[in-house]
């Protein structure tokens, strides 16, 4: 059941298809690209890889509404960068940068035409028009091993009239839980997502997505998350994710 | 726990948020828009609603590759329209049209600004560039109550380098299983999606997504589906979906 293997990209925590012996261990890596616990480390490494500094989509733009900005400012005030040399607030959050492209030579172990390779973009960042689709920023709190994501849903994410598509919500859940799992130790691959939709999310609104680590069992990471209104009073979606950490030696078995 | 209610659109089978008493019955409607068992009925109704005939994204375009076209031609030959007046092949498939917009007055029961309303587009059809994101067509076989979807994944759906994002796969699964559930009886809302990722899907490739009805229990519809290579030899993803059928009287309770 050996599959082709994604090439290894130093400093990044996500890989393509991987070889697994048993079906439950075969997984789909989603959007765990460019994940690191240290934004500054990554930002130092990126120019060497890309040639020039790419746009960081996790920074505020003119489309961000009042709720998005309020929550962003809240977590940013508690971030490592802001609190350095200042009073310790007891919370240590780190904002994670977010880009829209993978490396040009990234083939994930499969043959892709040059055209597809050069045009490929991360699914959640494939529309450059600010505010049109996924506007989000993820913060990570290392001491509590939890993530918080602020997500503003644009008008191009419609499912039911006036509401966010269930697939767009699943995409954000995969992004947050996968990022969370990859931050804990090693590169990961998504094995399972179990999503319960409780109440729809109106198009254009901002929600909070929080994830926690439920359990670690060998290579397995069990992450759960909740999508709520920004004040936490209304539950929109609940989900669990199972991720498998991948060792470098595993990746080298082709 | 009453929620706002999506307005009712005659001839369509998907609605916005709905009121339910118990959390497990609160759901997220996704992409079950414009679903009908009769394309011709819908196509007659659409011009009156839209003013002019909208683009049907389920028809072939120049980006469709060889595998996509071969499977499309296979199912199209077995479709109702093609077989009328011809020999009965024993299979009766119906191609389902697919559009990128909801009605302008569709608010889903929630307040949306005029700007968001006018710009809103169905998530899976929000990029007009042929071949860039989701290229798919769904066929329905009423006598066996099953669906078959041919899906070609564009370069803007990337997750792991060279592979389709797990969220994009979840989006297609939600689309197919939700469509299937809505075709069986009444409008539906997605309550749960449980997705097992078995092996990654290379970017640019074409896959087959087949869904079957597992069980009906009152208002509940249990649909399962498999994402495989076009010849069925390789399993990429398995999933189950739980959907709740919604009665018109239910919709009117605001």
UniProtKB/TrEMBL annotation, chains A, B:
Gene Ontology biological process terms, A to Z: apoptotic process; fatty acid metabolic process
Annotated EC: 3.1.2.2
Ranges for domain Thioesterase: 162-233
Record keyword Transmembrane present: no
Reactions catalysed according to its record: hexadecanoyl-CoA + H2O = hexadecanoate + CoA + H(+); octanoyl-CoA + H2O = octanoate + CoA + H(+); (9Z)-octadecenoyl-CoA + H2O = (9Z)-octadecenoate + CoA + H(+); decanoyl-CoA + H2O = decanoate + CoA + H(+)
Pfam families, alphabetized: 4HBT
Top EC class of this enzyme: hydrolase
GO cellular component, one term: ruffle membrane
Bilayer topology term: Peripheral membrane protein
Protein's UniProt keywords contain Transport: no
GO molecular function, one term: hydrolase activity
Highest taxon listed in the record's lineage: Eukaryota
Keyword set, alphabetical order: Apoptosis, Cell membrane, Cell projection, Cytoplasm, Fatty acid metabolism, Hydrolase, Lipid metabolism, Membrane, Mitochondrion, Mitochondrion inner membrane, Transit peptide
Record's subcellular location: Cell projection, Ruffle membrane; Cytoplasm; Mitochondrion inner membrane; Mitochondrion intermembrane space
Family: Belongs to the THEM4/THEM5 thioesterase family.
Protein name, as recorded: Acyl-coenzyme A thioesterase THEM4
Species the sequence originates in: Poecilia reticulata
